[in-house]
Model the fold of this input.
Amino acid sequence: MHVGVQVYQVPELPGSCPASEAVRPMIRVLLVDNDVSARAVLRMRLSLEPDLQVVGEAADRDTALALVKELVPDVVVMDVQNPGLNVTAVTAMLRRRCPTCAVVVLILHDTDAARIRDQDIEVTVVGKHEGDVRLLAAIRSAATPAP
Done:
């Protein structure tokens, strides 16, 4: 186990979904943010969604890279403001360890989005000001394989 790492074992819930509800495959999410409070808020919000499962959390790049290899999440949600975290470099490292893993980057400033676009990396960018509906849609879209 890594220092500062939280890995979650989520129990299977008994019962089944009513036939009228669409059944979505579970999307496994790894949260990467140096702010413990921000990770807690994200975890709580994502836990309200029946198709999203937070499988782990990391506060830094090295922990995120170790966890992505160990947990093989569908989506990594990371804050661009993490100190020492270069989105381009970390995304490349994540993809080497988990080629099927999608990346959703949370940004605070439009200049962050422009910088990421200029780097031509395959990530989904979501502004923190856009709210949870946009974030949830981005996670689900990123986890859906292209036809």
